[in-house]
Amino acid sequence: MITNRVRQGLTLLGMVLLITQLSGCDKGVAQNAAPPPPEVSAAPVLIKPVSQWDNFNGRVEAVQSVQLRPRVSGYIDAVNYREGDEVRKGQVLFTIDDRSYRAALEQAKAELARARSQASLARSESGRSEKLIGTQAISREAWEQRRSAASQAQADVLAAEAAVDMAQLNLD
Asked: What does the record list as coiled-coil region(s) (predicted)?
């Protein structure tokens, strides 16, 4: 059976449980005290002019940026904008010293004139050789050489025209 000591321990445990349950069932709810109102400071109202802007030191970085690349290289003669200005596509921002490009254009035009002169001479010789080949006055090889020279001279004219166009593009 249950010993006396165990019985006393169980009785004591039961009483402790009963007391804790009864203390939790207290009907009187303690009301929390309201916190004190916060302290605030007040300043007197002043009427004075308000600044519309302030000056600050800082660093501004643009949302969008572009990289400028020239079509040609050279020394800058003029800067055609002010820092901070808005610029549009195609607007001339810098003027580059164009003396070397003007000289290159003139050289290309002279080369074109020389090529046209050579082409005219080659066409003339080719035309004469056409008449002479019909009468067997020149060899077939000489006739083919003159025709080839005329074709090559015409190709030289086309190349010189392209060089003039490129020099004009670089100048613009």
From this structure: 98-125
